[in-house]
Amino acid sequence: MLLWCCEIAALIIDYPFQMVLSSSWCWASTWNLKLDYVAVMEVRGAKSSNDRSRYLLSPVRAVRGLICLLVLLSTVFFMLVYVGFVTAVILRLFSIHYSRRATSFFFGAWLGLWPSLFEKINKTKVIFSGETVPAEERVLLIANHRTEVDWMYLWDLAWRKGCLGYIKYVLKSSLMKLPIFGWGFHILEFISVERKWEIDEARMHQTLSTFKDPRDSIWLALFPEGTDFTEQKCLQSQKYAAENGLPILKNVLLPKRKGFCACLEDLRGSLDAVYDVTIGYKHRCPTFLDNVFGVEPSEVHIHVQRITLDNIPLSEEKAAAWLIERFQLKDQLLSDFSSQVPLLHLEKAVKG
After folding, report:
1. H/E stretch holding 191
2. Over 70: is that where the pLDDT of 290 sits?
3. Which of 108, 219, 211 is CA-nearest to residue 165?
4. What single string gives the DSSP state of each residue in 100-157?
5. Model-level pTM?
6. Torsion of Cα atoms, 250 then 252 then 254 then 257, to 10°
7. Of residues 225, 222, 295, the one with CA closest to residue 253
8. pLDDT digits (tens, 9 = 90+) for 85-111
9. DSSP label at 203?
10. Which end of the chain is more exposed for a tag (fewer CB within 10 A), N or C?
């Protein structure tokens, strides 16, 4: 119902603006941003030298994005104050298992608004490739970290597998302090880290120890790089790798092993598999506001490989070496992707 409201409002707003924009070139300024609008002519049978489908921030997209954001913020406040208090506080006094199930059910329904925003309203094409993954497994998910919104696109995968409410992230502690959203992260039992192992070790092990009940579905998502990718961070990572005899990576950062090995150590006996996920964006990496306003990305490619636990070494040293090998493969995948070889063509498609 909320999604329908957003779409109907977007259509109502879209019509008058399209009547104006279809007949003229416009220039506007919103929040000190220059918005350029161009008329687009379709030439049948001809191919443009640059076939990128980047979107422009038009008044339609700006207003539509604000409406969607207001709907999301108002509904999450309701979820936190009324639903979250009942499922995560009161019900937890009687049963942790049923508290988690109820919280996952209701918050999973709300989280479904985000993939709907990306795919239904903003028309972002999400393309999956790799291996077929079963529904409702208990998994550790490792992914590359290209931008600040990678974790949102993992929701698209979890959404298709019926596990949206069960996904938990290991994320930096500052995000747990955000108003409204930070409260939700606490209710959903995300693991906060300071990115200093002497501080994080005890906290991680304590939290992970509560996730061992095999009756509780879980998708524990970890970004082993520890931060999002930038050229400067890449150069620093390459320098460290060269000094320590490690592989030189161009599209990902060298992964950190401590958090990954801690997750394996505590949960190995209760997990079904590890999902190795590689995310690639067509044209450029989006920001949060790009997602809200539907400016970017036009396409997101998500490559998934399912790895059973018996294929991952037991010792920390060997597990760390295995993790680096996985990121070497990610680096090659992203190199191929940037060379216009879609991830979709590298493996059989994931079934939705």
Report:
1. strand 191-193
2. yes
3. 108
4. HHHHHHHHHHHHTHHHHIIIIIS--EEEEEE----SS--EEEEE---STTHHHHHHHH
5. 0.80
6. -160
7. 225
8. 999 999 999 999 999 999 999 999 999
9. H
10. N
For residue 55, the model assigns a pLDDT of: 60
Distance CA 219, CA 279 (A): 17
How confident is the model over 243-258, as a mean pLDDT?
94
Q: How confident is the model at residue 25 (pLDDT cuts 50, 70, 90)?
A: very low
Instruction: Answer for the pair 205, 266: CB distance below 8 angstroms, yes or no.
Output: yes
Preceding amide of 297 cis, omega within 30:
yes
Count of other CB atoms within 10 angstroms of residue 293: 22
Q: Which two tokens stand for residue 86?
A: 């009942």
What is the pLDDT, as a whole number, of residue 219? Answer: 96
- Residue 71, pLDDT score: 86
Residue 229, token pair as written in the block: 């990718």
Burial class (CB in 10 A: 0-12, 13-18, 19+), 336: middle
The pair of three-digit structure tokens given for residue 179, joined into one six-digit string = 């108003």
- The CA distance from 36 to 118, in Å, is 23
User: What would the mean pLDDT of 1-5 be, rounded to a whole number?
Assistant: 45
**CA 216-313-206 angle, 5° bins:** 40
**Tokens 């992230």 label which residue?**
169
Beta-sheet pairing, 167-172 with 219-222: parallel
Q: What is the DSSP secondary structure assignment for residue 166, as one 8-state letter?
A: G
Measured in whole angstroms, the distance separating CA 181 from the mean position of its chain's CA atoms is 15
Least confident of 113-122, 145-154, 166-175: 113-122
